[in-house]
Amino acid sequence: MSTTWLALSHGRSVARSEIPTVELNEFAKTLAAARADGARLAQLFGHRTAPDAMTVYAIVGRPADGDYAVCSTELRGPDPLAYPAATSAWPAAQAFERELAEEHGVIPTGHPWLKPLRYKPTVSGAPAPWGPFRPDVPIPGDYPFYRVEGEEVHEVAVGPVHAGVIEPGHFRFMCHGEDVLHLEIVLGYQHRGVEALLMHPHPVRAIMAAETIAGDASIAHATAYAGALEGLADVEPSGRANMIRAAALELERLANHVGDLGALSLDVGYLPCASYLGRLRGDFLNLTLDICGNRFGRNLVRPGGVAFDIEPARAASLRDRLTKFQGELLPVLDLLFSSSSVLARFEGTGAVSGETAEEIGLVGPAARASGLELDVRHDHPTGVYRFFAIPVATESSGDVYARAAIRWVEIQRSLVFLQDVLKGAWEGDLRRPLGALRPNALAMGVSESWRGEAMHVAITDGDGRIEKVKAKDPSMHNWFGLAQALRGVAISDFPICNKSFNLSYAGHDL
Amino acid sequence: MICEHDMLKILKTRWGQGHQTTKFPDTTPTLPERFRGKPTVDASKCPPDCKECADACPTQAITVAPSLKLDLGRCLFCTECTAACPQGAVKLTQDYRLATSKRDDLVISGADLKLAESMSAELRRILGRALRLREVCAGSCAACDLDTNVLNTIGWDLSRFGIQFVASPRHADGLVVTGAISHNMVHALKETYDAVPPPKIVIAVGACAISGGPFRDSGAVKNGLEGILPIDLYVPGCPPHPVTILDGLLRLIGRIKRS
């Protein structure tokens, strides 16, 4: 594997010329071979280098080696460019190759599910493989739904505007009675053109775009984006800056995991826990507010470090409040997970097997719930995660219970981690200047958001200017997992299945 | 089936939680010292021809000519301007009250902000004591939606003011809109608005819905709600703190008078 792949790490750059290039027809086989060696697909994207040339990069995670690796292939010729799809052999590539087709009009030949992903015109204006972009037609009216037919089969259409105060998306259920035979999820409503803004000439505007890819994972995305830039600038943040980033990332995880368990309680009608957890989520957000003045951690992470300090007195106060909240939180979680009426709804609902999870490339709690030992904090530890290891939480049943239980365990481990890191005396500058970026280079930044792996890749031109930033939210991998979880499930269980994944529409749509 | 033992556990846990609902608006909320609230500008502190704050601003919220002005509708409360100004001509205060009735009121040239006024007496008669809102998220990052939804938790208990979020626009008296209005949501947003029976109100929550926020001019958004729907209340912020949103809603229904 070493000659076709080049090792890649968070916050490190590689020369573009060093990245191995494989033959067009070998690309899918190269990916399949990496998978056979235990790798997982982390990113696949195209970068147009000339009007008639494109480089397609694939990045895989190698959990056993503790790193990532990159390889590429070159597409040349007049439009439409085409290459044999990797998805045919490895379904984990499906969304990435649809993105490639939608952005550049490239045809991944043999792709079994070639449909629009976000509803946007191609960069060049050329038609996508499924036809030209039609901005005047509402999305559900312009989507080739997979249809199940039969006398007793009916369709249920939901969204884009949902019942709750949540993001927009369209769900189409093919049902036989109460049972869902197939769920198709159509997104794109939240497409805001974020990736272009990641290259904004104003550096603060650019990282704010990263912070708002998925607004509830601002720290994770800003850390990954900063890591890519730090790699290009060859700057390593100080221990103190890394500690503050990690503390903020775990607070982000705590708030969201607590909120998700509250939302799951609500959806099974167990109101006591829904009330307590909804309030406690806010208490964790308020700790982030205390650190940087914003509940979602905006403006805290900056390339080269952080913009706000956690002084010893603030660290002590944060620890005290964490101890207090822990005392209020853990009995509530104990109550939730010992309530038979809750467990009856959680257990066995919306199961995704480990095999399916690997095949479609799930990440984060959803992957760990199905038994995959994947966690960036463990597989590719950066910053203070190198010194304070967080064990990977796994379950095996892959159902709503497992996805909930993973959060329960991770909440406890994040609380322990926070007490540990906030106790330490961390040295170093809050923020180090970046300086010039390495020309003709590619760098990657990665972080384990509470949903899974967030990754940013940045590429520079010959003058050290950024010419491409590719962002990935873990939701890009996991929406297909929700669709799989619904197979054979009663449609009335959709809300708890959905909450148990709680994916980002904005992060997917970019 | 809940057995006796389970019931005791539920009661014990309930006892441990205590009373958690804020007394706002009867008491003022306590916010940490780093909380980034209402900016103020003071042109008298500006050196001649200085435009450091305007250059530092990532969203062009600040203009210096002909006079120093800051547009709260564009501001993301990021502190770049305050860091760029050693004279302290631009400052962020801890004032959480930011909502206005008019777009122009969000453009400040001093320390004062003309806060939102109550809806008309006629509207208040119909909606003031039972306001039902339908939320439409149209190109947000989800943070505004999350901190709007927080008002439904026991910490804020929005329903004690007669305000509720409902599932159907047909049951609603108005819309709360978040997001920069992505091209892909324009159709659904208009359909939802049309489905709300009149009289109806529209509330724009967050910098995105007001001006496009961090996504302004990306090419994939309409730079906010302006010109798409009539707006009755503007709540700036990225995202606004829940108390900022609640303060705006309570001013709109006349529960908080101007101060």
Which descriptors apply to this entry?
heterodimer; A: alpha+beta; Cytochrome-c3 Hydrogenase, chain B; 5-stranded mixed β-sheet; globular; B: alpha/beta; 5-stranded parallel β-sheet; 3-stranded antiparallel β-sheet; 10 strands; 14% strand
Structural notes for this entry:
- The complex is a heterodimer of chains A (510) and B (259).
- Chain A has two domains: 1-130, NADH:ubiquinone oxidoreductase Nqo5 subunit (Beta Polymerase, domain 2, 2-Layer Sandwich); 194-509, Orthogonal Bundle (Cytochrome-c3 Hydrogenase, chain B).
- Chain A is 39% helix and 19% strand.
- Chain A has 16 helices and 16 strands.
- In chain A, strands 1, 3, 4, 5 and 6 form a five-stranded mixed sheet that branches. In chain A, strands 2-14-15-16 form a four-stranded antiparallel sheet.
- Chain A is globular.
- The two termini of chain A are 32 Å apart.
- The model of chain A has no long low-confidence stretch (mean pLDDT 95).
- Chain B has a five-stranded parallel sheet with strand order 7-6-8-9-10, with helices on both faces.
- In chain B, strand 9 (201-205), helix 7 and strand 10 form a beta-alpha-beta unit.
- The N and C termini of chain B lie far apart (53 Å).
- The mean pLDDT of chain B is 94.
- The interface between A and B is large, with 68 and 70 residues.
